[in-house]
Amino acid sequence: MNFTQSFKLALKSLKTSKMRAFLTMLGIIIGVGAVIVILSLGNGMTNMMNSQFEKMGSNLIQVMTYGRGTGDTRDVDVEDLYELVDKYPQYLTGVTPYVSASAKVRYQTDDYDRTSVYGVSEAFFKEDTKGTMQGETLAEGRFLSYIDVDRHQNVCVIGDYLAQTAFRGDALGKTISLSGVPYTVIGVLSKSGDSSEGSADDVIYIPYENAARMGGGSMGGVSSMFLVTCTGRDTAAAAKGIVEKRLYKTYQSSDYYMVMTSAEMMDSMNAMMNTMMIVLVAIAAISLVVGGIGIMNIMLVSVTERTREIGIRMAIGAKSWDIRWQFLMESLVLSLIGGLAGVILGVGGAFAVGYFSTLPAKVSLTYILLPFSFSGIVGLFFGFYPAYKASLLNPINALRYE
After folding, report:
1. Collapsing DSSP states into helix, strand and coil, what is residue 103?
2. Cα 323 to chain center, whole Å?
């Protein structure tokens, strides 16, 4: 019996009980669909994060300090890091505190609960690149100046989301309330994401000491964060070493601070994303295994129901291999049809999630072929035992079976 004949017989056998075949394939369909959706979302999010890090450039260093040191100077503050910049201009070019503020954002009668408010210094905006340390650019107005930061003035720079949603594109000179205090909008950032609520475009920058007073990240309390820029990719490692040496001088232990370059941050995020993806895919793959058990179960039932048919085929010349191959083919077709339905479900689901939410989804051919191929392997693996059992039947006993 050739491949074409076996395939046609397998389809004919499945058509005799469509509902049973569908219920058997359900685990495969769900498993393949879930794997495709998870891989597509993970791929999209990884690409989005990498693009954000690329915008920041390779010369950004993130510094976080925890607790207090043991010497006479128990903390490292922004003035200490300013001194480093002045001392090592061949390695370091700028530094700014980065304070996450707990502020209630309101414009007129509307509240913006998901808007992020950060406190920075004027150094956060680089005049040479006309962008922030994180790669954002100005659409109109100006960024915070030294006078704004030094005098703690109530001025702010907002993202595209607030500019379009709250101010209808006319934000400069208007005021917005942060924890009940009016702040004047002096600048608007260019759109960098999808300009949706809670996205990278839903942000406000204010002088860092103003943000610290709002109860955000403490400048001299338990935790502080700074962004430092170096002269380039080649000097990033040396610049990191200079900062770490200064921090160790105060804290006398590397447990009280963390220094990471943008390249290290990207690698760390990618590793975390990959680990999370492996766990989620493994969970989704359980459905494929469950589907395979369902296929084996239904094929064992099929062997029992068709015992007399097997006996007749053996009696007219079918070999054990023919019987084994026929049942293997039925199991394979069952799993591949389920896999194909899962591919359609998964691709459609990934596009739907990307369209109706802010989560990015990027479907690739690899993420389609991988679970689809695995569904075929599952069909062969779990179909082998029923096929082998059918091929071992005694023709005489099979013919007598009622």
Report:
1. coil
2. 47
Which one, of 370, 357, 350, lies nearest residue 42 by Cα?
Answer: 350
Return the amino acid letter for 158.
I
pLDDT at 48 over 80: no
pLDDT tens digits along 170-203 = 899 999 999 999 999 999 999 887 778 888 889 9
Structure tokens at 90: 């061949």
Query: Which helix (H) or strand (E) is 322 found in, with range?
Result: helix 320-356
Query: Which tokens sit at 199?
Result: 């996205």
Q: Give the SS3 label for residue 216.
A: coil
Question: Are the C-beta atoms of residues 254 and 98 closer than 8 Å to each other?
Answer: no
- Take residue 330 and report the two structure tokens written for it: 């039925």
**Amino acid letter for position 231:** T
Q: What is the DSSP string of 113-180?
A: TT-EEEEE-GGGEETTTTEETTS-BEEEE----HHHHHTT-SEEEE-HHHHHHTSTT--TT-EEEETT
pTM over 0.85: no
Half-sphere exposure of 214 (CA within 13 A, CB side): 26
Structure tokens at 243: 């900062």
- Whole-number Å distance between alpha carbons of 144 and 219: 19
Measured N-to-C along each axis, helices 262-305 and 18-56 cross at an angle, to the nearest 10 degrees, of 170
DSSP 220: S
Q: What is the identity of the amino acid at 74?
A: R
Please report the pLDDT score of residue 220 as a whole number.
46
Radius of gyration of the chain (CA): 32
